[in-house]
Each structure stands twice: as structure tokens, then as C-alpha cells.
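Example 3.2
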Amino acid sequence: MTHYRAPLNDRIRDPSMGTTNPDRTENFTYFPAFIHVTGKKVLVLGGGEVATGKLRILSKSQADITVVAPEICDDIAVMVDEGRIVWESTPFVDTMVNGAAMVFDATDDPYLTARVKAATKRRNILLNVVDKTAQCDFIVPAILDRSPVMITISTGACAPALARIIRQRLETVLPATMSQLARVARDARQKVADHLHDNVSRQRFWTHFFQRGLQTHSARSICPEDVDLALRQFVPDGSSATVPGGQTLMADVHVDNAFDLPHGIARAIETADIVFHEDHIADDILTLARRDATVIPIGCITLDEHPERKRESIAQQSKIFARQGFNIVTLTQPITH
């Protein structure tokens, strides 16, 4: 089978592109990344409530955590008793940071902070001084925990309260069952790869599987048997060469930003393989498309010499691509005078 391929969506990467939001061109102050800390040393200085907050997050990782403090509060003492962290009660010395992947300073002691900063800088170790952004090599974002799914929100330390509010709103949108859904998918990746040998089939399968699994009206958790059922339904007669038909949608867009876009249209754009769009569709909306999606401008249908013929041509192209298993979205916008 021959599949259509075209240049990928570069709208979210091209700084020269016009945009409805000029602030999007602002450079990152902090680079967003996740650090692998399994089996690595992480040092936390301080034994009070501030240190406790960091330790609650760190203890969910598989890092080797050491707390340096002359005294520790009850919550930290429980973590020590449970064997989740190690407590070092002796005064801080520079060599304590040796071999650490990162260091957290939660002491609120400017003199000690200066010593710690000098020690970590000499050893090229990342340092976070809690609530002292100017002293930090890295910051910790607001976290929405749906392990193994981890969603982080950061304002680059300029508005932490806003990041917390965004996280709280997302808590009400993303179901708790997302955790189980991700675990089931993780364990089934090889099984799905054994059944579906091409990327198009696998991508289509997982898209459909996750969409069904994230439906808010689902009353039960996803289990491994759901993957088996989905594979049987997705691949008739056990043929791994079968690619199911894709979906097509032609939508009139009446807004100029992604926030006000109807949820159904937004979800269609996010899962589309190919997006046809009129020239005056806002870039803010087009950035919803996946990075690997093909985004194709089609001018302005209404102003075309033969608008109905052009609509029919796009509809025919969409059908061809859909038969190859692609999801197609065509976005038009009525002209107002």
C-alpha cells in the first residue's frame, strides 16, 4: 500500500511565522526536561516544612536521597524510619555534594547557601535554592501526578501561583483512570507491535484506544484484556496488514484562538494526520496539530473562482487519504464584512 507523505507541521517551530500571540516568540529561560535520577544521589539541605515539601516529591522517584540537617520535623522522621531517605545530622561540608545529581537547599540560610552554591558550581552539580529563583540552576514546576503520566506546568518562575491554578484546573479535566490506562499501554507496547507491523497502523490503534479509554463516562478502569479486545476489533481476522479507514471532518471555524474552539473540533485537529486549512485560520488554532501532522494551506474557498468545485476536490482528496487510514480535517472560516 502506498501512503501519502508530505512536509511535517512546522508552525510551532518556525520563529519567523506570523502569530496571533507575539509573546510566543519569547525564548525559554529554563529548558523543560525530565532528569533520570534512579539510583542517583540527591542531596536536600534542611529539615523543616519547606524541605518536607520537596522530599514528598523526591520520595516518589527512585533516587538515593540524603537529608542534611541538625534536626528534622516529624514528617521527615517518618520517611527516615520507613527507609525512604537517609538523614545526616552532622554540619554541612562541601564534600557532601560529591556525586550528587542535584542539590536542594531548603535552609533559608544565606551564609550556608553561599557555601553550597560555591560547592555545587565547582563540581557542575545542579542546585535549587527553594524560593530563591535567582540562585537556582533549575526550578521545580507544578506537577499533576497521574503516574506514569507526569504533567508539569511552569511559568518560568515568574508566576508560580498561576502554575498552581492551571494544575488545579487540569485536575478536574484529566481522569484518575489515566494512570491505569498508561500502565496498561506500557505493558502492551510489544504485543501491539507484534500484531501491527507498520507505524500508521500502530498510531491509529493507540489513538483510538486512548480516546476510548479517556472517555469521562467510562465507569471502570482499563485492564490488559481491553487491549486484546481492541486488537481483535482493530485487525479483522488477525491480519496485521489491515489498515482501518480514517475519519474526515470539514469544520467551519468561527473563532480566532484555540481556547474558544469547540472541543470536538480541537480534538479532531489534535488527532488528524492531515489538516487542510484556509489561509485566514488563526495560527493559534493550527498549532494544535501534531508535530508530525501534514498542514496544507488551501487559500480561501469562498473567494475562489469556482468555490464548489474546490470544495469537491478537497473532499475527494480527503476520501483518498481516509481510505489509506489517515484522519483528515478541513478547516474553513466564513468571511464576515
